[in-house]
Amino acid sequence: MNRRQAEEYFFRGLMFISSTFIIMVLCHIIYSILSAGLPHLNWDMISKVPEGGYYFGKGGGILNAIIGSLYVAVGATSLALAIGLPVALFMNIHLTKWKKIVNGIRFLMDLLCGIPSIVYGAFGFTLMIFFGLRTSLLAGIITVTVFIVPIMIRAIDEVLMTIPRGLFESALSLGSTKSEISYRVFFKQSIAGIITAILLSFGRAIGDAASVLLTTGYTDYIPTSLNQPTATLPLAIFFQLSSPILEVRQRAYASAVILIAIILFISLLARILTYSYKKNKINY
Amino acid sequence: MDQPEISIRNLNLSFEKQQILKNINVDIPRHKITVIMGPSGCGKTTLMRCMNRLTDLNTQAKVSGNIFIGDRDILNTNDDITEIRKMMGLLAQRPYPLPMNIFNNVAYGLRISGRKKKRFLEKRVEHYLRQVNLWEEVKDRLRDPAAVLSIGQQQRLCLARGLAVDPRIILADEPTSALDPISSQLIEEKFAELKSSYTIVMVTHILRQARRIADHVVFMYMGEVIEQGPANEFFENPQMEMTKSYLKGLFY
Ligand SMILES: Nc1ncnc2c1ncn2[C@@H]1O[C@H](COP(=O)(O)OP(=O)(O)OP(=O)(O)O)[C@@H](O)[C@H]1O
Ligand SMILES: [Mg+2]
Q: Rounded to two decimals, what is the model's pTM?
């Protein structure tokens, strides 16, 4: 066996070991959540709001947190998309001449992506106080939006960056304006990537506890307006997990199973959507 | 010679400190095929990009001089740039179909200029696809994504898409370099037909291709135009030493 072959075997082995390791860790996490949560998951949990004494092991469920989380995540993801998509398109189409500015924005966004969400929570909280808002669904949505916008922008930006210049120039020489290129060409070419970006942001939005900790408040009721406080799943898990009562802690795992199920469902949905939108994409 | 379609006067272009195009003066005759030749890196692509102002995209590029189309200096004008670009169809070295189906690729140019009636679009799309000999191959799958076509078919689709904008000029930068001999020949034949209604400017490295289809030749070297003139004079009786040795294949 010569040296190059040995090298090949070595690196292949290395990759195999690290992939197996990471997959095993993930499987173990999922397994322990499922095994701790599934037995305690019941219809009441996902169909009822907490009854009095729920947090001491009495009846009810966490429908309030499920709905609250969906409200926050859907609201924030939609807002982030409405802001992020135009910004990413603008960076890649209108600012092509100014590479330095675009790279500056990218750097800034990467920086923002790295800031822990509790900082956004605190920022949202100060904003809230400044505007005299109470803890509410609205405050939560705004905070989470601020928190996921950089993620959204960079995720879409990465996809747009892979579009070859030749396509841009071809579209220009057909007499397109830059906005026509944005929504008729670049958008279509990157739909699959945009869906992935939405999914990524949604996952971050629905799973983050720190950004909603200070801003949404917590309640046992399902909010009926943007000004009302709301419960969220990550906080529901957090509160239940810190209970001294075993049964409540078990419900925390059941809540985690619900959260995972929501993310799984959204991922599958996104895959299906991506598949049907990808057909016009050109692989250059 | 009649009034040329494009007259380039004292065109200079530099990227940062490096001067790429040096005092270019070229006349491109109307309704003829003008071939630009020269060794790699001599500035052929850059010259073409000046003509449809794609050089605008590059902030480091400093351009001076004039490019006249008719009496209009398209290099120094505040007119709508999309309208200037529409006068020139671009065929790139490799095809870049738009991320949509075959029909919409051709209809794109019509749609953005406000022609949206379905009947009209169908008629025009068929017309342009026939014009590039693609209709028979795709008529049953117009709604399929353009990506399913072969590279040769994609290049013809791109030509059709460019023609649909109704340009006066076709700019082609090594349009056959990524194609097989048959597809290349199809493009060449199309150009020979199209020149009765369009002015065609084409870059090529293939000497034999140039001999086959050129009416007019511009020979460049290191950012300068060394020689230009009608094809038969250029090939049969070149004036400059450099042209002679290039034609003998002494350098590329
Ligand atoms: N964006 C750019 N920035 C800096 N220099 C450039 C840029 N584009 C082209 N150049 C330089 O300009 C010169 C001419 O390039 P151009 O692409 O016009 O050559 P060409 O004649 O088309 O060559 P080829 O036959 O290989 O395509 C080259 O020296 C190239 O390095
Ligand atoms: Mg070139």
A: 0.88
